[in-house]
Every structure is written in structure tokens, then in C-alpha cells.
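Fold this sequence, please.
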Amino acid sequence: MLRRIAKVLAILAGIVVLEGVVCAQVPQACDDWTHITNATGTFGLSGNASGTIETAPYTKLQYEINQSVNGSFALNGNTGIALVGPFKNTVMISARYTTTYNPPGGDGYTHTESYRGNGTQDAPYFTAELQIDLSACHFSFFSGNPQIEVTKTEVSTTSKGTTTETSTLFYPWGPARLPSGDVSVGPPQRMQPLAAAYIVSALSFAAQDLISDFYGVNINWTSKLELSGTGGDLGPQTGGSSVPAPQISDSSFVAESADKSCQYLDKSPFLLSIPIKRVVGDVDENGLLVDPEKLIANGVVSPYATLRLSVYDVDSDAPIEPELDWVSVNKSTLDRLKGLNDKWVVNEILVPITSLRFGKRNPGSDPTPGMNEIQISIDVLSQSLKPLQLWCMGVDWAQLEFKALSPVIMVNGNNSSHQFWEDFDFIRPFQDQSIPFYHMLDVPTAKVTSNATFLASKLPQKAREFGAKWVHVVAHSKGGLDMRQMLTNMPADFGIRSLTTLSTPHHGSALADFGVYAPQASPLWSEWSGQFVGGLYAGTFDADAGRPDMTTAAVRAFNLWNAGNLPKYFLVDDEVQQVAYNSFSADANVDGSVDASGKPTIQDFEKKGVGFFKGLFTQFAYRTLWEYASASLVTKPTIFGTELILERELNDEPQLNDFLVTVKSAELNPPFIEHLPSKDNHATIANQAIALQAIDGIRAAQPVK
């Protein structure tokens, strides 16, 4: 019996390799759990993965991951299934990732991250119990908050030398990420495999998370589960579909039947309700889309959804008086069921999107779901033969699946707010095309790491308001750096389909250099240039917590580990999606004018959105970025001792810019696809024309047909 249960574990988890086992027979009723007599045993799970991935040109990622878990279990027909802990000294995880960048001409780097964790603390790491209530036909999963202490070691080697950094991390393990409390799983024939799947998932989360959290790549993982023990057997196989219910996601909604038995005309109509939480557009009082044709035309939602029904014993091919069962969705009759005698068959029926009831957005909380009523009129040809009933049919589960554009979240830059997206009507095309979006985040003026934490909390929260787990993100200026930091440490159960940056300093800004370093330099010995005076002013009267992270030196160090590790894929609800990256830049010298010496000049119409006072310095700012690549502090001896001196570095060639970020700095290819520079400044780049281009990129990343 234990080996049979192990096979069910293997099939449902999809990651466990077992040999020489027989598939378990599934009980029909709650009482059949009493066929499982007392059984105890031990389990051991081990896994490993290794390989090399080309993450970017000239860049390779080598990885090695190992995992082992050991423990004991107990099964009993009267009390259910329990994992018995504590599992002290039984959890071992080790992983190493080495990223090597070897560009032509040298000056590459090697970055190694090593992890090692084990369950050696005195407190129990994992104590969980999975109980089955035979009378109510549901199970409950109880656990504490287990976590593994992991030591992380980073070693970076560049042409300038080698640095080593060690830190301690804590990773949630197993059931910490699974539902807790009472979880209804419907009728008993689905209870056993669900319980089994949860156990295997619990054993495998830790190593899987190490991979996805840090690199977001799809790595081939091999693991093996071994079970041994003694116990009884199961009862006879009766009822239950052989096809498991599909995964619930933000575009797939599932309901399971409370009664899977074969039902006759006297039970007609069969009813099942599927709630859809997804917010696609405005809905009326019945949950129907207000303007579905517009949403379909603009690629916001697919014209049809697919209704899948797992049905039993539908004799639609009987030679005499074939069974006729009509299916309706929200009182709209669609098609008849098709099936085979004494067999489970999955039917697929197209449902016009105009017939579905969608979620209604409630800002600040979860959406109100639209309730979709599935009705099956059973054996309608026998209506005239009452009380004689010819045919019966049963339903295991029903699914409604459709395609819908993920909501767009807008992330403002440093010293900015949501008002930025309104100033030059960036949001207008989104409104005109009824694209779901949110632009009111108001990201604080803070360090990149702090804002990444803020975004990791807020973005999933705002996605949930749309009933979504995937989003597209448009970020301005430093907001793009904040998002890049967040992408390398994503929250669970949440994914990014695309990131579009507007004037983000992907290589830093020389203006940030002058603003940060000039106030620290000695005025007596530094060169009294316009840049020094301007930087001294900016750093003294216009300083903020976010600016140091935009200096060329800070972003250069940031890129060393972040640029090559931006995820290519995310996995949410067993759905893998590629991440699309797009970048936009701007040149504020719209008319390309220069003075007699060939230096660019800025006219009043090119200062739009800058403000009167800052507008006085726009030509100075443009020429600074045009001429200088960076500024830095150096220590030099003087007659009064050692002093900090501000030094400037010239550009190899003049650089077009938007007053704050050069066109070159706004590009990061790979992975970003760079677009032609627009004739805008740092503020006006958030206009309708750029919004339309951004929407084109979003649609290309997620076609909805």
C-alpha cells in the first residue's frame, strides 16, 4: 500500500522519480479511508541539478545544487495522514552559482555565490500534521513557520582584485508556503492524491526556491523519493476522474462538484458555480463586461473562453436513443455533452466572452468575483418518458479559461510621485484603450534596496486588486533601477511579464556624481568649474537619499552583479512566461541648436515640465552631460595635508541627454531592447506618443487573441 501511495505522489508532484510501483486505487467515499490500516515508515528525498546556461553574450552561469531530506511518516484510516517531526539534523541544502563574463578585449569578471544550509538548531525545523475528517470529507494542514539557516558566500573577481562577502539568510521551507487551516478539497476521491501532492511539494520547495529566487531560470531538476514501511491496503477502485482538476491561476478558474455520482433526470438540472475574480474591465450590475467589443479589439481580452468539463458516462454515441445533455453558461445554451459509456471524458466548449461574469475591482482589497453558473440539463430526450429514466451522467470538475492582458503598474522615479504620469497624459492611451493599469504607487525617495522592498510588497498587492498574479511594469528614471533590484529577489506566487524603462540611468548619471561628490570635496583645491559650483549647490540644497544610488560608480557596481542576473523567465501557478525588457531614452535639444563654439543651446520650449527655477540651469545640465562621463573624489596631498579633490572624466564623444540621463546610459542591451531616442526631456518623455510605443511592447510580450 505504501508503494502505491508513493506512485500517486510521483504522478501529481511531477518531480519525483520512482520505479517498480503500482498506481493506487482511489476510494469512492469517506468510509473507504477506513480501508487504510495503521502504517508507519520512513522517507528520504534527495535531489541535484547542475549545468551551464548562456545568460548573455560572453556570459555563462554554472550551477550545482544538492538537497537531501529525511524523516518519518504515519498513515491511519481513522485519523488520516501525518508527517511526524521534528526532523532535526535532516535537512541539507548546498548550492553554488558561478557567473563568468569574458568580453572581447578582456576586463571581464567572475562572480561566485555559494550556499550551505542545514537543520542543526535545537528547535524543531518541521513539525506538521495532515488530518482527514472522515465525516466532513476535508483535510487540514497544520504547521509552524519552519525555515533553514543558510550561509551565503559571494566571491567577485575582476581586473581590480577579489572581494569576498559572507552573510546569513533564512529560507522558508516546505509547508510554510502551503495553505494552513481547513482547506476544502471536495469529495473524497480527490482527497488522497491532493494530500500526497502537498507532502511532496513540502519536501521539494527549498532547493527549487533557491534556483527561482536568484536566477528565475528553468533548470532541469532531478529528485528521488524513497518510501519504506508496513501497513494495510486500500479498498476497491470506484469513481473519480482520471484527469486531475486543472491548476487555478489568474486566467483559469475551477470548481469541483460536491457530488460526482452518476445523476439521472430527476436530479436535472445539474448546477455548478465558477467564481471569476479577474478584473478585465468595467462590469455592469450582473458582472458582465460593459464594452466587451472594445476590449477584444484592443487586445485586452480574448473573444472566447474555454469551458472544460470532466464528465462521466455520457452515452452520446448510443445507437438507439443517444443521451442528450445540454450545457448552459449563465443561462446561455452552448452545446451538448459528448462522452462514452462508463468512461470519464473531458469536454471543451467555447464560451463567448460576452457571456461571462468577471471580477469587480475594489481599490485596497480583493475584487468581488463574478459568479458564473454552469447548468447541465440531463437526458432531455427522456422528459417525455417520465418516470422512466434512461441515462445518467456525473461531473468531476469544471474550468473556465480565457486570455486577458495583465494589468500595467507604473513606477515613478526619484523625487517624484504618481502626478508625473498625469502631467503629460502618459496614462491617456491606457484609458482610451481600456487597458487595466495603476499609476498611484508614489514610490518614496530612498535607496534602491529600500525601494525594491517597497515594490516587492506593493506590486503583488496591487496585482491582487485586479485578481492577477502577473503584471507589466513601466518605470521612470531611478524607478527602473528599483525594479531591476526587485526582479532579482521576487516575492513568491507573482510574476513580471515585461519591464519598460523611461530615461532610467542604467549606467548612472554624471549629474548625480557632481551633486553627491562636490559638497564633500575641498573647494580650495578642486577645480572651480561650473560643474563643481552646480554640484555644490545641488548637493547642499537639493540632496536626497536616492541620488547616491544613481552615481556612475554606484550603478557600475550594481551592474556587475545585477545586469547579468536579470531573470529571463518566471514561474507562477505552473505557468512559465518569458520577461520582455524595453528601454526608452530622450534628447532634450529638440532643435539641435548650438552656439558659435559648437556647444548645444537649450530654448525655452525645450524646458517644458522642468519648472522655472530649475529651468535656469537646464543648458548647464545638458552641456555637463554632453561633455562629461563622470566625476569622482580622489585623495591628494596639499600644503595643508591630505584633501578630497573632485576630478572629472570627459566623454569619448559628446552625449545626447534629457538634462539628467544620457541616451547611452538609458540603454542596457542585453536584455533591454532599446528604442530610438525621442525629442523630449526627462519629464516630457512620459507623453502619449511614448505611451503608445510602450503599449505596443506590452502587447508583443503578451498577445491576447
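The chain has 13 helices and 32 strands. The two ends are 47 Å apart (CA to CA).
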